[in-house]
């Protein structure tokens, strides 16, 4: 007997919403990782860790501004943006001849 085309082992078809959905602990972990990257970015490699913190914070917030915002995600987003701006200012300040930031 041949396996029929109508009988499958999967009961529910895959949907895009199920593949891109992040659960609560995953979002919390992304928020904490983003906050750590943002704080570390103030001391070393701010030009790289700042955008990483912004992306982690945005993903931890669920890629939207609506709804409840977890605190680590919001901290990661804000501090990552500040960190990126300060790193860019340092790069521009040191690139100009004889006009350093400090």
Automatic annotation (TrEMBL):
Stored PANTHER family: MEMBRANE PROTEIN, SMALL HYDROPHOBIC PROTEIN-RELATED
Keywords (A to Z) from UniProt: Membrane, Transmembrane, Transmembrane helix
Transmembrane residue ranges: 28-61, 73-99
Keyword Nucleotide-binding attached: no
UniProt-recorded name of the protein: Small hydrophobic protein
Biased composition (Basic residues): 8-21
Region entry Disordered, spans: 1-23
């Amino acid at each position: 007997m041949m396996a029929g085309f109508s009988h499958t082992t999967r009961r529910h078809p895959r949907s895009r919403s199920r593949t891109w959905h992040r659960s609560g602990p995953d979002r919390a972990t992304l928020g904490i990782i983003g906050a750590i990257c943002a704080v570390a970015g103030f001391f070393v490699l701010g030009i790289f860790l700042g955008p990483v913190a912004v992306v982690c914070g945005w993903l931890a917030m669920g890629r939207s501004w609506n709804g409840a915002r977890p605190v680590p995600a919001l901290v990661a987003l804000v501090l990552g943006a500040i960190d990126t701006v300060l790193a860019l200012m340092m790069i521009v300040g040191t690139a100009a001849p004889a006009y350093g930031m400090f």
